[in-house]
Amino acid sequence: MSDQQQLPVYKIALGIEYDGSKYYGWQRQNEVRSVQEKLEKALSQVANEPITVFCAGRTDAGVHGTGQVVHFETTAQRKDAAWTLGVNANLPGDIAVRWVKAVPDDFHARFSATARRYRYIIYNHRLRPAVLSKGVTHFYEPLDAERMHRAAQCLLGENDFTSFRAVQCQSRTPWRNVMHINVTRHGPYVVVDIKANAFVHHMVRNIVGSLMEVGAHNQPECWIAELLAAKDRTLAAATAKAEGLYLVAVDTLTGMIFQNRQWARYFCGLTRIMLGTFQAVANVVTA
Fold it and tell me: What is the CATH number of the domain that holds 169?
């Protein structure tokens, strides 16, 4: 086929939401369920051709996404509704496309991203939850969120995160730039928000695991700074569980940031509703 006869190629970006509790992580793997495999299958059905997606951040088994960004290329010309409603009709109920946007040829979901934001939700109560058991991490010892927040501020800026890096991490460098990290309490929930240019493997969960030790008064506030300086993973706390972690936003192009913020407001509203509901339950239980 000559150049004149070749079909045009379209580059499309999507915002993806998923409950990761039943998946072996984002990345496609042989003989196990992955979010990528399910999404590519649904997209291929709509495009009527094989589709490969590239994501902004690969999440581990059990980790959720509410602001994941992906892109793919296709020769199929479809309306936006086909890439949202049509793809959603072919996806399992725990994965959904939230928005679609045509992007320029030089856009790449991973390499065009300037920052990612994660949220970790801890249900800090004597009794474990049931309905949200796969969406929050239960920690029964009382946590001092203000103490955790103060201890976490030493992580801001560009640092070597070897102490919070999984042993099997394949990143070429442990250096990352943390732009903000906040720890707040909402009734029985403690929420950790962290934004960085990128993350080493298990970085957020390892940070949260150590912050919980500080919040439970098992370690002093200065311990987090000491861990950071030590550059030794064996000195830090155990990795926090996967179920409380969400990839909530990815900063890329200006338009994409706007889309992410729209979705972030939706997710924050949903979170407030959930926290309010379970705060009411907690009040009834403790009354």
Answer: 3.30.70.660
From the candidates 3, 19, 60, 193, give the one annotated as an active-site residue: 60
- Structural domain including 93 reads 3-102
Does the residue 238 lie in any domain? yes
pLDDT in tens, the chain (287 residues): 555 578 899 999 999 999 999 999 999 998 899 999 999 999 999 999 999 999 999 999 999 999 999 999 999 999 999 999 999 999 999 999 999 999 999 999 999 999 999 999 999 999 999 988 999 999 999 999 999 999 999 999 999 999 999 988 888 899 999 999 999 999 999 999 999 999 999 999 999 999 999 999 999 999 999 999 999 999 999 999 999 999 999 998 545 554 556 656 666 665 665 555 555 544 544 43
Q: Is residue 110 part of a domain?
A: no
144 is catalytic: no
Residue ranges at the known binding site? 118
CATH code at position 67: 3.30.70.580
Q: Which residue has the tokens 């890329």?
A: 252
Residue 107: inside a domain: no
Cα separation, 91 vs 68, in Å, equals 16
Cα(147)–Cα(223) distance, rounded to whole angstroms? 12
Task: Tell whether the torsion through CA atoms of 23, 34, 39 and 111 is positive or negative.
Answer: positive
As annotated, the binding site for substrate includes 118
